[in-house]
Specification:
The protein has about 475 residues and is mostly beta strands. It is about 10% helix and about 35% strand. The protein has two helices and 33 strands. Strands 5, 6, 9, 10, 25, 26, 27, 28, 29, 30 and 31 form an eleven-stranded antiparallel β-sheet that branches. Strands 11, 19, 22, 23 and 24 form a five-stranded mixed β-sheet that branches. Helix 1 runs antiparallel to helix 2. It starts with a helix and ends with a helix.
């Protein structure tokens, strides 16, 4: 017996205790991965291959292998916290050193709008253009827009509504002499905006001009007094913007008013809708017909002057000039109450950035004060054939090496890459109970190796004392 075996055992046990202590110290470190000390025996003649009854000379630390098993997902409610559920690493960079990799998703937004970790390393991903379209390719540092979102003029309106086939005709409506309420009523064509008896139903919406200013648009539905020659039901549709009738109908013809002013009551409708005697969708406008709606300039309910749609210098009197594309092809007529089931338009006011959200596929979506949202980028993840070959750098960071292989990149959820959980973090995968048991075992092994040295010392002392 020599001291070699005992000394190597003490050294190995000491290293094992260091690894266990490191694991225990990082039991609450988000994104941390446990390590395992791996040992191998030693033989003095192993290289020469001499003999079959050789006695080993001890033990050596062969590797400290990291264990990249999945940690538990802990919900934090912080939208900037990210957890990877599955394979993959976040990529972070300072713009100078090689890209580094981490499982710790504790990110923040710095003063310049970049998404960074606690070491101010920038999260890597794909940027988005001004329209919110992701630009895949070489990953760059993700940066949130610091400015607001520009306004968008309304280009399209889509409506889906039901007209009541049981409704009585309201056109032409009856009108008394305003100076004599007891006078006989006479038939009046058109629409009287302040008289609900002159129309059957109405619905309103808000559209936006080129400056993002709101314009109140109201549509009035008036059942005609007589069906057409084929027995089809006819409905007149009148349109107002900011309380005044639009100036041109769907074909571009001028709409006259009863007093000849822009604020008067319209005498002719913006368009008519024709339904078969059996109801259903309109036969006019036809199934492929979109209407051209031009909004005149005016003053909105907040007292602000609004632009025309289309905006100046467009000439609204020119029938070839396009305004808002109005789609009423999904309207139906049947024996049920009037109801608007869908109403959408694509314009919006300007807005400021109010927050962000991150989807499972890594898309970073910016939210604005006007209710709009659009992608601002997409996070790119990386995975390795041999993650245990990565070099730990501290700070929950790893570096690519020849042993790990090259990074295989992609967006979360693609291939064998995991998905992202926003508002959550991956806890350390250290099993604290298991580590405490391992620590007790390592302590006993250390004591046993110390005992072998003590025994060897006693044997040598006995030899020295021989007479």
């Amino acid at each position: 017996m020599s001291f070699q075996q005992g000394l190597s055992g003490l050294n190995a046990s000491s290293k094992n205790l260091e690894v266990i202590g490191h694991n225990i110290a990082n039991a609450q470190t988000y994104g941390a991965k446990s390590s395992r000390a791996e040992f191998a025996d030693m033989y003095a003649t192993a290289l020469n291959g001499a003999g079959t009854n050789e006695i080993g000379i001890g033990v050596q630390l062969q590797a400290v292998a990291q264990q990249f098993t999945q940690g538990s997902i802990s919900v934090t409610e912080n939208p900037m916290d990210l957890a990877i559920n599955g394979n993959g690493f976040f990529q972070v960079s300072d713009g100078k050193s090689p890209t580094m990799y981490t499982r710790n998703g504790q990110f923040k937004v710095d003063k310049d709008g970049y998404i960074v970790n606690n070491d101010q390393l920038k999260l890597q991903g794909y940027p988005a253009d001004g329209n919110g379209v992701i630009q895949p390719g070489l990953a760059t540092s993700l940066k949130l827009p610091t400015g607001g979102i520009e306004p968008k003029v309304t280009d399209d309106i889509a409506m889906e509504f039901t007209l009541d086939s049981r409704a009585a005709a309201t056109a032409p409506y009856e009108l008394s002499d305003p100076a004599d309420p007891n006078s006989a009523k006479i038939d009046q064509t058109g629409l009287k905006l302040d008289d609900p008896k002159s129309y059957n139903n109405a619905t309103s919406m808000t559209v936006y001009d080129a400056k993002g200013q709101p314009i109140a648009v109201t549509m009035y539905y008036q059942r005609a007094n007589n069906d057409d020659a084929n027995g089809n039901t006819v409905w007149n549709v009148y349109v107002t913007a900011n309380g005044s009738a639009v100036q041109y109908d769907a074909q571009g013809n001028p709409i006259e008013t009863d007093d000849g002013t822009a604020t008067g009551n319209p005498l002719t409708p913006y368009t008519t809708m024709t339904f078969l005697p059996t109801g259903g969708n309109p036969v006019s406008p036809g199934p492929n017909e979109l209407l051209n709606l031009k909004i005149p300039a005016g003053v909105n309910s907040q007292g602000a002057p609004t632009l025309s749609i289309p905006a100046p210098p467009a000439d609204l009197s020119d029938p070839s000039v396009a305004g808002i594309s109005l789609d009423m092809r999904s309207a139906v007529e049947n024996g049920s109450n009037f109801a608007v089931t869908s109403l959408s338009q694509d314009g919006y006011a300007p807005g400021q950035l109010t927050g962000i959200s991150i989807e499972d596929n890594g898309t970073v979506t910016a939210r604005y004060s006007n209710g709009q949202s659009k992608p601002a980028g997409q996070i790119e993840l990386a995975t390795f054939r041999n993650p245990q070959g990565l070099q730990p750098l501290g700070g929950n960071l790893w570096l690519q090496t020849n042993a790990s292989g090259s990074a295989v990149v992609g967006v979360p959820g693609d291939g064998n890459l995991g998905s992202l959980n926003a508002g959550a973090l991956e806890e350390s995968n250290v099993d604290l109970t298991n580590e405490l048991v391992n620590m007790v075992t390592a302590q006993r092994v250390y004591q046993a190796n110390a005992q072998t040295i003590k025994t060897q010392d006693q044997v040598l002392q006995t030899l020295v004392n021989l007479r």
